[in-house]
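During the reporting period the student researcher (J.K.) took over the structure-prediction task from the postdoctoral fellow and processed the backlog of single-chain submissions. One of the processed entries is reproduced below for the supervisory committee.
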Amino acid sequence: MFFVFDIETIPDFKFVRKVIKNPEADEDELLIQASEELARNSSGFLPPMYHRMVSWVGLWIENNGVPKQKVGWHGEDEKEGLQKIFDSLNTYKDFGLVHHNGRGFDLPLLTYRALKHGLQMPKRLNHYDINYRYSNDNVDLIDEFSNYGASSWPKLKHLGHLIDIPFKQTGEGHEVLAMYRDEQLPQIEHYCYEDVMGTYVVWLHLKYTVGDIDKELFDNLNDRAMSKLEEIQNNE
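J.K. obtained the following structure tokens:
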């Protein structure tokens, strides 16, 4: 079984105030300063240590890509959300993972936040099959398409455009904080679900492109996935 997943976060302002020089700043000013002092990229997006989780969505699929079950969570109690994703992952002993930049953000985030809340992660997440960068059991689309960093990293949205499928119709990552401030937690989970379906669709196309699944199975799964993606996008 594979777990296709995505996590939505906002800055952990309480923690950020402990590590920068101006802890009395308001949140927007604090975010600007944190981006300058803590970010390691030109976008100013903070590293995973400085985020807290507000939603996640996962889609269980069989090894051949057939979808089995959607699970998800949104809320204020991050510890509860972490426990729920860990409980879901413990459903299967030898699961694999599919994600977009999960190695760079989502998986480190889970480790940091489990550490913060004193939770124990599923042992599988620390297994060689998951931690080995070239593992077939931990599929990061960024690595798959960039040949493990030999080429540039593709955005999920751009991969969608490449195969003429519109992604990111219900929100963008930088909008999550604004949605959170507007108390739109269910909408954040809905946006997260679209990302997961987008990741799944791109993974399907990749599996077909490299010859891992035949055309009949691909056409069937892709038609079902596109119907679900359209349903998600039309029910904001």
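The committee noted the following: The mean pLDDT is 91.
J.K. will present the remaining backlog at the next meeting.
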